[in-house]
Design goal:
Blueprint lengths: L4 H11 L1 H4 L1 H4 L6 E9 L3 E8 L6 E8 L4 E5 L3 E2 L4 E8 L6 E13 L3 E18 L3 E7 L4 E10 L6 E5 L5 E11 L2 E10 L6 E11 L6 E11 L2 E4 L2 E7 L4 E14 L1 E5 L5 E3 L6 E11 L5 E11 L5 E10 L12
Length: 335
């Protein structure tokens, strides 16, 4: 839903100052996260998603943490209607040990002053060290695959073991090798392999190391990277904007290849969208997408496919817009 924030805040002010700030909380999908038990040195991060569901533009003035164990940052402070941002919480596993918690206070100054509190908790295990702190697969060409190594060291007992490594992504394979076990210190090396059939797109997953330690049975390892095809489209979700009936809006789409290519066909079932693709062969195409709003209010969403002369793979993106009548612009509209 697009909500008109001014009317909402007026209603909430009647209920009291605390209730008047609920408009900001409604933009967050969650407001707390527990990391569980994590290894010392592990890169441990959580992203709180923020989405502006209002017609008015929102601005995040600042965010601060109540504890040095967590460092926050904002990916995008200015949010127009339907735009999203993230509050990134980095858990400091290098300088802190044991159970830690922090409150992140997110301050808004537009369109109204408000604060949202996000809570972080976790347990940093001092007897387990991970190197590197996370696995970055990097940028991988489609069909190539990739490998990365992870070393995990435990101190304080000879019976500690890594018994399994789990992931929800079927395109990862893990080989676990015990490297040494001596004087209460145990070291494992894990070979993490991204398979050649991994799909195109961002890699954002978590590898779970299962141990025999009841106090820290599972240890998470963040895995990231990107699989690139020969042709990429940016953005994959093209927001045209909030428009009025009959209004014409043009947005630009970036279509990039590893070598010069031609766009030979564009398929779109909705005649409200017009795409006049360049005819020449080049490595980067800036493609205009023209949308003409119809008479009916509501959300318009359309998947648009682009075919090039680089094989049979068809690339696609989604374009969407919100049509709002002039006399109804102050009323809620369905997203």
């Amino acid at each position: 839903m697009i909500r008109t924030l001014i009317a909402l805040v007026v209603c909430l002010l009647v209920a009291g100052p605390a209730a008047a700030q609920e408009w900001a909380t409604k933009m967050f999908n969650v407001t707390s996260h527990d990391f569980g038990t994590v290894a010392r040195g592990a890169k441990t991060q959580f992203r709180f998603q923020v989405k502006n569901i209002y017609e008015e533009e929102a601005h995040i003035l600042m965010v601060h943490s109540s504890c040095g164990c967590t460092t926050p940052q904002v990916t995008k402070p200015d949010l127009k209607t339907f735009e999203t941002s993230e509050i990134i919480a980095d858990f400091n596993t290098r300088d802190f040990l044991g159970h830690k918690s922090a409150t992140l206070t997110v301050k808004f100054d537009r369109p109204f002053p408000a604060e949202v509190q996000l809570r972080i908790t976790g347990n940093i295990a001092g007897d387990v060290v991970m190197q590197p702190g996370s696995l970055d697969m990097g940028t991988v060409d489609a069909g190539k695959g990739a490998e990365r190594k992870l070393q995990v060291t435990h101190s304080g007992g000879d019976k500690w073991q890594i018994v399994d490594a789990k992931t929800a992504d079927p395109h990862f394979e893990v080989e676990i090798t015990e490297v040494s076990r001596n004087g209460g210190r145990t070291t494992y090396e894990l070979l993490v392999r991204l398979t050649k059939d991994a799909p195109v797109g961002m890699i954002k997953d978590q590898l779970i190391l299962v141990t025999n330690d009841p106090k820290g049975l599972e240890l998470p390892v963040d895995v990231q990277g990107r699989v690139l095809s020969d042709i990429t489209i940016s953005p994959a979700q093209l927001f045209i904007g909030v428009v009025h009936p009959g209004e014409k809006v043009t947005k630009k789409l970036l279509v990039r290849g590893k070598k010069p290519f031609k766009i030979i066909d564009v398929t779109c079932a909705d005649k409200s969208f017009e795409i006049d693709a360049p005819k020449e062969s080049k490595a980067v195409h800036l493609v205009p997408v023209v949308f003409t709003a119809g008479d009916e209010p509501g959300r318009v969403s359309q998947k648009i496919s682009i075919k090039t002369d680089q094989g049979d793979v068809v690339q696609a993106f989604t374009a969407f817009a919100e049509i709002v009548k002039l006399e109804d612009s102050a009323k809620p509209a369905r997203e």
